Amino acid sequence: MGITRRFAILSICLAFTSAAYTCAVWAQDFKVTLLGTGVPFPATDRFGAATLVEAGKERLLFDVGRGATIRLNQIGVSMGTLNAVFLTHFHSDHTSGIPDLWLTGWIGRYYGNRQSPFRVIGPKGTVSLMQNLERAYADDIRIRYEDEKNPMEGVAIAASEYASDGVVYEKNGVTVTAFEVDHGALIKPAYGYRIDYEGRSVILSGDTRYSENLEKHAQGATLVVHEVAIANQEYYDKTPIVKYIMAHHITPQEAGSLFARVKPKLAAYTHLVFLGSPDYPAPKVADIERTTRAAYSGPLALGTDLMAFDVRNDQVIVIPDASKK
Ligand SMILES: [Zn+2]
């Protein structure tokens, strides 16, 4: 948002002093919305990984887990208005919503109506994934084109991939930088993203255990959105698979130490992994908070689906539910 537009908004806000909430909404030129904060488990309250970043004129989606289209609809964002989709890695809980977003977004209704190619940017493997989806859904595309005459431009795929750290997208003052993270020795490629806009920056960790490279890229970040995992200690001690899963993710203690060093205006959790069983109850959100607090006393948000963040210069405002206008 330019200075003129900011000034205009401020003027309107000052003219309507009782409309503080509206002013806060209007001021959001850099907003991050957690569309899905869950994991592979098919929960009704935590959908698959997906994070929407709206910066100036750009609407960018990072990962497309299960239910991303439903969450977009809940906040009134038409699928056809997304400028680009970014993938962190190829675990299905981060990608299984792609066909839904791509094809439903092509339908010529208000919630879709895509008129330009579906742009997907990700690490090596992205082009092949998208080519294979195109093959898988060839009949749907042919039938809808013949029947509904949706413009073929809107279902075309523009996929591109990268093989190392660097800027992967630059438009309208928004810069997206990919950086490698550490999701375990066999889970490669795995990347996180930094989004810069008008002197503010957001880090999205993707899936990773503690990553030195992430910490390097997170220096000076305004908002850090990080994954996290926690297990019942007894269950962890007795169960090899739980040790294996935990080795792919960061613990609240480790994340807390990271936040304490990076000192963002706000640290937020997404992709919350809770490991337990009927005999060994999984820890709760409060346990994540408590163990994080052992190492970090700064601003912290325990992400839930549809929680959003208004990224300002001096602070990050938490919007508990972005679907409530
Ligand atoms: Zn993963």
Describe this structure in words.
This protein is α/β, with parallel strands linked by helices and 325 residues long. The chain has a single domain (30-319), classed as Metallo-beta-lactamase, Chain A (4-Layer Sandwich). The chain has eleven helices and 15 strands. The chain has an eight-stranded mixed sheet. Strands 7-8-9-10-11-12-13 form a seven-stranded mixed sheet. A hairpin with a 4-residue loop joins strand 14 (308-311) and strand 15 (316-319). Helix 1 packs antiparallel against helix 2 (20-26). The protein is globular. It starts with a helix and ends in a 6-residue tail after the last strand. Residues 1-25 have low confidence and may be disordered. The site of zinc ion (ZN) has 4 residues, from loops.
Give descriptors for this structure.
325 residues, Metallo-beta-lactamase, Chain A, 8-stranded mixed beta sheet, 7-stranded mixed beta sheet, 29% helix, binds zinc ion
The tally of domains stands at 1
The structure class reads: alpha/beta
Radius of gyration based on Cα positions: 20 Å
Strand count: 15
Biggest sheet descriptor: 8 strands, mixed
CATH class: Alpha Beta
Query: Rough shape?
Result: globular
CATH-derived topology = Metallo-beta-lactamase, Chain A
Strand content: 25-35%
Q: What string gives the helices and strands in order?
A: HHEEEHEHEHHEEEEEHEHHHEHEEE
Mean pLDDT: 93
Strand order within the widest beta sheet: 6-5-4-3-2-1-14-15
Percent of residues in helices: 25-40%
CATH superfamily: Ribonuclease Z/Hydroxyacylglutathione hydrolase-like
What is the name of the CATH architecture?
4-Layer Sandwich
The helix tally amounts to 11
Bound molecules: zinc ion
